[in-house]
Amino acid sequence: LCAIEQNKYAGVNLKFHPKMAHYAQLYAEYMVKNGLTNKHDCLKRYNFPGLSTMVGNLNAFFEGKDFGEALKSSVKAWYDSGSNMKSGMTDNQYVGCGVASNGKITRVVSWYGKGK
Length: 116
Fold this sequence. Notes:
Elements: H1 2-10, H2 18-34, H3 41-47, E1 51-61, H4 67-80, H5 84-90, E2 94-101, E3 106-115
Antiparallel strand pairs: 1-3, 2-3
Helix pairs in contact: 1-4
């Protein structure tokens, strides 16, 4: 879904990294379970030692949402923002997205980075 929506909104072809996508999904689930919104730099460095940079976007919905709808609206918002969020996702080599909800809150996470 994330790859399809990014290509649809930005006309770019990104290389989606399976491990990064898995980490983004786990992070989204962790935030939903624990109600947290901070990023864990030590986990990023441990899980992706081959990256020179790794940053991310977070979209927090304070309601339960369909995963596909939440992901699509988040990616569109990031691309329409005209800020570092769009360039971050399109200018990096690896991108991964994740989405989670507990029926009360929904979190969408996107990680992106460059190799050393």
